[in-house]
Amino acid sequence: MKAMKFFILTAFLFLCGCVAPQYLYEKKYILYDDGPVNSYVSGLEEEYPEEFKMVHRVLLTVYGYQYDFTGYFSRDGKDSFKGVAFGDMGGKIFEISVEKNKKELLYKPDAIPEGPLLDGMIDDLKFLYVERNFDTAFVVEQSEIHRDLVSTRDWKNFNVYMFRKNSICPDEALSVKDGEIFRTVVFSDYRCFGDRLVPAKIRVHNYRWNYQFEIKLLKLVSETKTENGFDEAKPSTDNLQTGGVDER
């Protein structure tokens, strides 16, 4: 059974290396320059401590087939991290590393192609847990209850975080490259982590490599010791409604 699962995963990642359908992005946002940019940006920039470790349960879906594994992720500084995936029987599936934007595959079976890991999974993890560049960000008012934080005015390459109007936690996000949407993300089940709120469930759809994965957070521990010891994620009774946006 273990060998069969590994064969199936290998086939999945091989299929990921084929050309995936891409979706054109239509520019339909209306600029809302007086929006509360700082409130949204500060929440995202301070979402995670500079150094932390986390454990996930991951469900990967490719062309309707599914494979689940346990993922270990650690960030060491603002631009360095490592990730390791293990199967149900404890066997290592892959190990990745990023050191100041240098990507490395520390381990992978020969049968698994590099593309979906180096240019797919690593970039998705960077987007979720590392990348926070909002120097030229602005806010768009989509409706009376929804607002978007757009990372830059370069309409061919940017990220969008989607918020409910009175929340500082995004519900969804999308990434555009060369004018096409190549990744969408859904965030849910926010938990308290010290004075932060982090999503315990994340769903990613990568159109470039034609796969989806769902992450369920099992444990999150800060590597920076506080006065009360190490912070750990705990359920938040207020969930997404915690905190409001400064409308001034």
Distance between the termini: 59 Å
Q: Give the full name of the CATH homologous superfamily.
A: Lipoprotein localisation LolA/LolB/LppX
Shape: globular
Tell me the structural class.
Answer: alpha+beta
Supply the number of helical segments: 3
According to CATH, what is the topology?
outer membrane lipoprotein receptor (LolB), chain A
Oligomer: single chain
In the predicted model, the low-confidence regions spanning at least 5 consecutive residues are 17-26, 227-231, 234-248
The profile of the biggest β sheet is: 14 strands, antiparallel
Provide the gyration radius in Å.
18 Å
Please give a handful of descriptors for the protein shown.
248 residues; alpha+beta; outer membrane lipoprotein receptor (LolB), chain A; 14-stranded antiparallel β-sheet; 3 helices; globular
Structure description:
- The structure is a single chain.
- This protein has a single domain, classed as Lipoprotein localisation LolA/LolB/LppX (outer membrane lipoprotein receptor (LolB), chain A), CATH 2.50.20.
- The chain is globular.
- Helices cover about 15% and strands about 45% of the residues.
- With about 250 residues, the chain is α+β, with helices and mostly antiparallel strands.
- The chain is built from three helices and 14 strands.
- Strands 1, 2, 3, 4, 5, 6, 7, 8, 9, 10, 11, 12, 13 and 14 form a 14-stranded antiparallel β-sheet that branches.
